[in-house]
User: Fold Molybdenum cofactor guanylyltransferase from Castellaniella hirudinis.
Amino acid sequence: MFDGLILAGGQSRRMRSADTPEADKGLMPWRGEPLAAHAGRYLRAQGANRLWISANRHPDDYAAYGAVVGDDPEYTDCGPLAGVLAGLQRAQTPWLFVLPVDVLRWPDNLGARLGDAARPDRPAYARTPGGPHPLCLMLHRSLAEGLRAFLDAGGRQVQGWLRSCGAVAVDFPDADALVNLNTPEDWARWP
Assistant:
């Protein structure tokens, strides 16, 4: 049993332009629906007990897709790990399945395979032929204190924190799995 966390707390800087100066990727439509709707539906289909959305802007809009959690003010400049910590602190199940809002083309068995590889003291994250996807991960809520300590010590790199707790990579062979829509060019490539 796990809760799902959609990471949508970033600034979407690479998506901004003169036409979209306030872009928020999670609310941008892809195939007729906001990315947050797609991610939420996927996490529920994977078996998420409850859905959380890490969002620091537009909380009323994101509330249509799950319970919104903002970063702790103490960690506002800590990047996505602040969102992971917020999710871990609110999770109502022992496990949390994390998914960035701008990642698509999920393997059907992502949650199951990450869950099989994760341990209470060791998260599991996805890796494809294109490289690691460190924020597509399954982790136990007991890791919250270690993550807090990492952030308090100045740590910000997701992969650095994962190494510090012995995280294991789970390989997915499809090179087109877990596509990240970071830029307008990415959106054009994966319409």
Notes: The radius of gyration is 15 Å. Residues 11-16 have pLDDT under 50 and may be disordered. The longest strand covers residues 131-140.
